[in-house]
Design goal:
This protein is mainly β. The chain has one domain: Domain of unknown function (DUF427) (Metal Binding Protein, Guanine Nucleotide Exchange Factor, Chain A, Beta Complex). About 0% of the residues lie in helices and about 45% in strands. The strands form 2 sheets. An 8-stranded antiparallel β-sheet has the order 1-2-5-6-10-9-8-7, with no helix packed on it. A hairpin with a 2-residue loop joins strand 3 and strand 4. The chain starts with 11 loop residues before the first strand and ends with a strand.
């Protein structure tokens, strides 16, 4: 399939097999706090905001370092998915319900390695806020 001429930011990460599938990763210049049921479950000064265009323009997602997660996340055994832009994801719950709350790419593709090992939360499962001054 021939692709039309596309001029894109050099700061985007592209799926090498489909240049129209890409993401932009930017550091968040504020503290990111994540809440579930009114309880803070994560706080980070090193979060990344990922905006992705694939089959749709997806809402931005925050990715946080594991050390900034306050509560224990329980891996969901056997639950994985594949993204042609990021790699294979594994999933987490907060309790024995196996309700998915977060995911990670432990072995992201080399071209997406900036998100490798970071934790992302489902926006409909948590409340996320940015606090503090922009740098």
């Amino acid at each position: 399939m021939a692709y039309p001429e596309i001029t894109l930011s050099e700061e985007t990460i592209h799926n090498p097999k489909e240049p129209r599938h890409f993401m932009r990763v930017k550091p968040v210049p504020r503290t990111v706090r994540v809440y579930r049921g009114g309880k803070m479950i994560a706080e980070s000064d090193n979060a990344l905001r990922v905006t992705e265009l694939g089959k749709d323009m997806y809402d931005p997602i925050f990715y946080l370092p594991k050390e900034d997660i306050i509560v224990p996340l329980i891996p969901i055994d056997g639950k994985t998915t594949h993204c042609p832009l990021k790699g294979d994801a594994s999933y987490f719950t907060l309790d024995e319900t196996d309700e998915e709350i977060a995911w990670t790419y432990e072995a992201a593709f080399d071209f997406s390695k900036i998100i490798n090992g970071l934790i992302a939360f489902y926006p409909d499962q948590v409340v996320t806020e940015e606090v503090g001054a922009s740098s």
